[in-house]
Amino acid sequence: MPLDPRFDAVGNSNRYFNKYHKLRRALELVPAQIEQNDTELATLEQFMADLKLAENAAEVAHVKAEVQAAGYIRGKALVDKKALKAAKKGKGGKAAKGKPTAPGGGVPLHFQSREGFTLLVGKNSRQNEEVTFRQATSNDMWLHARGVAGAHVIIKAAGREIPRGTIDQAASLAAYYSEARGSTSAPVDYTLQRHVRHMKGGGPGMVIYEREHTIYIEPDKALTLLKG
């Protein structure tokens, strides 16, 4: 900032002093703003993944409802009540037995690994919240495709040691139901559920985690479970 000839030395010194403090205050706000921007970006990426993974009108309706609830869409409710009601039912229109319904998000997917472990898959942000923080316990295993938006997958340990084969199957589901679908090999992180917590300022299913391990898996390997 050049000297202003309208001011004397003291006046210019005061200008520099005030400019310094203004910039310093602005700099102090930068980390919080960056964190807020990162959280919002992660939320938008999750919405995009939810929409890509939606396989019917009911699941699309759920995504629209979440986007509206987050304030990105204005106007009247976009929720198709008939579609939402259908999403809470299993095949043939009957309520799915033994599978709790996630509020507003539909029913998470359930699979059985070759070794007999129950695998839970959340296909959208509400289902992710459901499987991770309501259906999973602290010693269950949590999986998620690394660095991309997608499904939370839970392996129900039930007091047993989880074999590598089951981890591989669960990882393939996490990769398949994520932005990594279509790649030949995708990194998937896994850790115990107790090492997963909500992201500060994030919406449903937005998490951070620690003490993870990473494996590489082919997303298409999940097709054997889906066809079974």
UniProtKB/TrEMBL annotation:
Domain named NFACT RNA-binding: residues: 110-201
Organism of derivation: Dictyobacter halimunensis
Full protein name: NFACT RNA-binding domain-containing protein
InterPro entries linked: NFACT_RNA-bd, RQC_Subunit_NEMF
UniProt-annotated stretches for the region Disordered: 89-108
Pfam entry (one): NFACT_N
